[in-house]
Write a structure and sequence with these properties.
heterodimer; A: alpha/beta; Ubiquitin-like (UB roll); de novo design (two linked rop proteins); 3 domains; five-stranded mixed sheet; four-stranded parallel sheet; 9 strands; 42% helix; B: Arc Repressor Mutant, subunit A; 4 strands; elongated
């Protein structure tokens, strides 16, 4: 089935309705690879890093780390080979933007990779694509072959004398491989269990070599930053969060889909104006703003600009921009059951707090949903979540704890009603 | 030997892409599974031989990842995404109805070996829910009639 293009486009997705944009010839007709040519032929690696720093581009994979700064961590004088890794293991529930960037704009991402490779001195990029994205991975491999045949990648990239190869790697179904060091382990042919940090990947990354990991969307922004400059990039979005991002809107809305909008666009504008609000005149109950790991916001708090500096004030974050809308029929305890089930299944099992904690959160959530919970269970949920957060090797345990804390912060009454009535008081909620 | 010469050759060409041999292990398992349907202990032993690993090193990888199977599967793989965005749009009801339609529970294979039905975590098709992945291909914006039609077309 064909992938739908975004309802609202910006510079990243402007040409996604054009089937030819995925081909090298079609991409070049739209000005593609001009930025890489400029970077590799006219700019030093330091100049590229300074430009990306000046643009304020932040990683779009969830953590929002400044990209230029990350690139600058790569050691300059090392005899070791250096690698880039493109994290295309998009698995955050509610996120589906990287899939379209791979399928409709593979050369845009490859151009960003090539510029990043030049800036960091990396000889090879591994693009780690989640196993379920076999079709996007095939599109990407086709694009890599085209760019290599044309001499844009390979021994003498763009005639600059710089060598860069791109290897497409297929994962095999594990959410934890989206965590950058879990990804590195998987890339090395192991279980995707995250590594202790330090050492950080810039020092000890893929196969023990200095490595920088960036997300698909992050790389896709880079050619635009190089072509149009830092001031242009900063003219979009907010002062602290420049540029656009691709919001994925799902759940109870009239027009679920992808929307490329400036960072700082208000959440209620995205949900009501762009996605058409909740169907059939029903009211909205809550919205998860940034993928399932991010705490939910209640209906009364949707007047928030979608950028971390504003979302943090409401104890949530932009994450991957996956906006999940829930209408008034939704039972938030059921939502909690689905969320905790996912994290229980996907915990890699390395750290006790996470392995045991995710199981307990799910068990208690189910008990409450069945009508067998007590008031004390609500406190146990928060106690367990609090003892997971910040206590483990990677951020997975935080990602499992935050949504539970968010549900209890804003929808405690839903939980208490289950305890009081000894059953789920939301008969028309989605089925479990 | 269970892995064919052709698959072995493809595994070798994958190995050449990585600075260390083991980097190609997931690719090798994908290739072996494509040929053999699942990764048996015997297959794991052979793969281990190609990578200078112990069979247990291979099996711990096989059992860590959802997409590798250590036992035989149906001829067709049908996975319904049941994560939150899909659940909000009726995916769990759909899965229950497909369970009834096929007479199996999620995780099981039909007695004739035709279909293995399962649930899957978010597949990145959240706006086009409910959806299912059939033999690697996405089917989106489903309702029960459409989903049944797709299942009934699988031989």
């Amino acid at each position: 089935m064909g992938l739908k293009v975004p309802y609202v486009t910006g510079y990243l997705t402007e040409h996604f309705a054009d089937d030819a944009f995925g081909t090298l010839a079609g991409y070049e007709r739209r000005g593609g690879y001009q930025a890489a040519r400029k970077a590799l032929r006219e700019m030093t690696p330091e100049q590229v890093i300074e430009l990306v720093k000046a643009s304020g581009l932040q990683g779009r994979g969830g953590a929002g780390f400044p990209t230029g700064m990350k690139w600058s961590f790569m050691p300059k004088d090392t005899p070791k080979p250096k690698y880039l890794v493109c994290n295309a293991d998009e698995s955050e529930p509610g996120s589906f933007k990287d899939r379209i960037l791979l399928e409709r704009g593979p050369h845009q991402m490859l151009e960003g990779i090539l510029i990043g490779a030049w800036a960091t001195g990396a000889s090879k990029t591994f693009v780690y694509v989640r196993g379920e994205y076999a079709r996007p991975a095939a599109e990407l491999q086709r694009a890599v072959d085209e760019a290599t045949a044309k001499g844009y990648l390979g021994r003498n990239a763009m005639g600059s004398g710089f060598q860069h190869d791109v290897v497409v790697v297929l994962g095999a179904g594990a959410y934890i491989c989206g965590e950058e060091t879990g990804l590195l382990e998987s890339l090395e042919g192991k279980k995707g269990q995250p590594r202790k940090k330090p050492p950080f990947p810039a020092e000890y990354g893929a196969f023990g070599m200095p490595t920088t990991v960036n997300n698909v969307e992050t790389f896709s922004h880079v050619p635009h930053v190089v072509a149009k400059g830092a001031d242009w990039f900063r003219s979009l979005g907010t002062e602290k969060s420049p540029g656009t991002t691709i919001f994925g809107v799902s759940g109870h809305v009239v027009r679920p889909g992808l929307y490329e909008l400036p960072l700082g666009t208000r959440l209620d504008e995205i949900v009501f104006e762009h996605a058409g609000g909740v169907p059939d005149g029903r009211k909205i109950k809550g919205v998860i703003p940034g993928g399932m790991s991010m705490p939910i916001l209640p209906a009364g708090q949707l007047d928030v600009p979608m950028a971390n500096e504003f979302l943090r004030e409401r104890k949530t974050m932009l994450g991957t921009g996956g906006v999940m809308v829930m209408d008034e029929t939704t039972c938030m305890v059921r939502a909690g059951c689905v969320i905790t089930w996912f994290f229980r299944d996907e915990s890699c099992g390395q750290c006790t707090q996470c392995r045991e904690g995710t199981g307990w959160l799910h068990k208690i959530m189910q008990r409450i949903e069945r009508g067998a919970g007590s008031r004390e269970d609500l406190d146990i949920l928060l106690d367990v979540a609090g003892k997971m957060e910040g206590q483990t090797i990677c951020a997975f345990a935080d990602a499992a704890a935050w949504p539970v804390q968010g549900l209890l912060r804003h929808f405690r009454e839903d939980f208490e009603a289950h305890v009081r009535e000894r059953k789920c008081p939301f008969p028309s909620s989605f089925e479990l | 030997m269970v892995i064919s010469g052709e698959t072995r050759a493809r595994i070798e060409s994958e190995i050449a892409k990585y600075p260390q041999k083991r980097g190609a292990l997931l690719a090798a398992l994908h290739l072996a599974q494509r040929e053999l349907g699942h990764i048996s202990l015997e297959t794991a032993r052979e793969v281990a031989g190609l990578f200078d690993l112990q069979p247990v090193d291979v099996m711990e990888v096989v059992t860590f990842y959802n997409m590798f199977y250590d036992r035989p599967q149906g001829r067709h793989h049908v996975y319904v995404c049941t994560n939150l965005p899909c659940s909000l749009r009726g995916a769990r009801s759909l899965l229950k109805q497909l369970e009834a339609h096929l007479g199996v529970e999620a995780g099981e294979t039909t007695p004739d070996g035709r279909i293995t039905l399962g649930h899957e975590e978010c597949l990145g098709a959240c706006a086009y829910a409910p959806m299912m992945r059939v033999d690697g291909v996405y089917h989106e914006d489903l309702d029960l009639a459409k989903a049944k039609q797709i299942l009934d077309g699988l031989k």
